[in-house]
Amino acid sequence: MQKNIIQVKNLHKKYGDFEAVKGISFDVKEGEIFGLLGPNGAGKSTTLEIIETLREKTSGEVWVDGLNLDTSPNEIKKLIGVQLQTSGYYPGLKLVELIRLFAGLYNEVIDPYTLLDTVNLRDKAGAKFKELSGGQKQRFSIATTLINKPRIIFLDEPTTGLDPQARRNLWDLISNIRKQGTTVIITTHYMDEAEVLCDRVAIIDSGKIIAMNTPDKLIDELVATGFERPKEVKKANLEDVFIHLTGHVLREQ
Ligand SMILES: Nc1ncnc2c1ncn2[C@@H]1O[C@H](COP(=O)(O)OP(=O)(O)OP(=O)(O)O)[C@@H](O)[C@H]1O
């Protein structure tokens, strides 16, 4: 039985009079990729930022690896890796310089080149952040979440705005990070991404969890209600055509 590395119980968050998170509860098991899915404004980022200790909750309880968020936020910070928005990096610094800077903040000694290898960016070590493509920036920002050797990483919409190949490359990267034993919590608007990557997902709507299970079981439950797609679906879609024609290999734009 896997242990619960994150437990969230009856979490509420109000911004003034507006309640963005309305009493949600869920557990994340150690070593899983857990997805928070939901439309714009559902409360996904708010929930993530509360667990990341970056935002105050209104009420409810959160534990990370047995540590209570109210009493041990600093200990929790040491266990987690948080992805910055790509606007959060000094654009004029080289990748190796940025890694050394972050490592210094975490008081970690790491080899920047080894870290860049894990995200396939060694050949960009001397490039400035602003010179990277969108996909490369995302890969680099995922690399920086790993600097403090976290047990859990939080990825907020990591593939938004990327082309189909860059998205698939990030899926491979995220799967590899999990294979090393790191727990991953991810938010996404892409259902194909959640289906491929996530062991379990919670679907959030208007601040409430309306479903939670493995993608497979959620689909089976829907089918069991008699649901059928309105028309026969072809064996491939336009994205398959695009990937078939342009390849799945890593491309540097
Ligand atoms: N600092 C804030 N002050 C006031 N309202 C906020 C603040 N941050 C978020 N909200 C509101 O809370 C709700 C939830 O926002 P949140 O960013 O958590 O949603 P989300 O599910 O991550 O959405 P998206 O998919 O668009 O990123 C939204 O209605 C948003 O406008």
From TrEMBL:
Gene Ontology cellular-component annotations: plasma membrane
Keyword Translocase: yes
Superkingdom of origin organism: Bacteria
Gene Ontology molecular function: ATP binding; ATP hydrolysis activity
Compartment list: Cell membrane
UniProt keyword Transmembrane present: no
Matching SMART domains: AAA (SM00382)
Keywords: ATP-binding, Cell membrane, Membrane, Nodulation, Nucleotide-binding, Translocase, Transport
ABC transporter domain ranges (all copies): 6-231
InterPro entries linked to this entry: AAA+_ATPase, ABC_transporter-like_ATP-bd, ABC_transporter-like_CS, ABC_transporter_ATP-binding, P-loop_NTPase
One Pfam family of this chain: ABC_tran
Entries under Gene3D superfamilies matching the protein: P-loop containing nucleotide triphosphate hydrolases
Name of the protein this chain belongs to: ABC-2 type transport system ATP-binding protein
Naturally occurring in which organism (per UniProt): Hydrobacter penzbergensis
